[in-house]
Amino acid sequence: MKSDQLLNVVGYAGKLLIESGAEIYRVEETMVRLCHSFHEVQDAESFVTPTGIMLSITVDGKTSTKIMRVHSRGVDLNCIDRINALSRRASETAFSLEELNQQLQEIGRKERYSFGMTLLFSALSAGGFAIFFQGSMLEAGCAFFIGLIIKAITCFMEQRDLNNFFINAIGAAFAAMVALGLHKLLTNTDVDIMIISSIMLLVPGLAITNAIRDTVAGDYLSGVARACEAFLVAIAIAVGIGFILSIFMVQGGV
Hints:
By secondary structure, the protein is mainly α. It has 2 domains: 3-109, no CATH class; 115-250, no CATH class. It is built from 10 helices and 3 strands, in the order ααβββαααααααα. The radius of gyration is 22 Å and the shape is elongated. The chain starts with a helix and ends with a helix.
């Protein structure tokens, strides 16, 4: 077994986990477990942050190390579950390096949901939040429409690898702009409920949760990093909405 190949395969598993929104301790534990599933590995250590992976293994008394950079992060709980299940199966059943790599590649290539389904359920979520915030069915319908628009816009910008701060700021700005436009047409709607319901799609709920979990687990560096990421997303949302609201107020108010 070649150490560099094992490092590449296990590092790829860790990268998929981070990109899917996994907790740091889960990423480290999964990579170490995959390494120890090969009896040639005498020792394995990993150090992971939200933006990078450091993995080292010892084979035949020689230690090899690999460093990987992670540029994008999202949410894919199905991917996390499949890799976690694969690592546990590997601990019980001996996989060859080629078999492990093949299964990881299949997980990495698997498409989560179609674009249309993503838009539909994002819009349904926005409409559901409007009901949760005690809005009327009309406001829920408006929130549904706004959620459809901002999800399409954010997906379009994500495909072009734009900065996450600008994606959230522009998405929030469009949410406020469309909500204000609908309020002009439907004066009996509550513009606050429409805006709040639609921007819930942009709120970094997983980042906030993982920041707390990583901090409680003792991964203070990762916890602070994720908390800063969530804070910047919140600022981006506020900037986008505040910019549009200030323009409408200057032009005569909402």
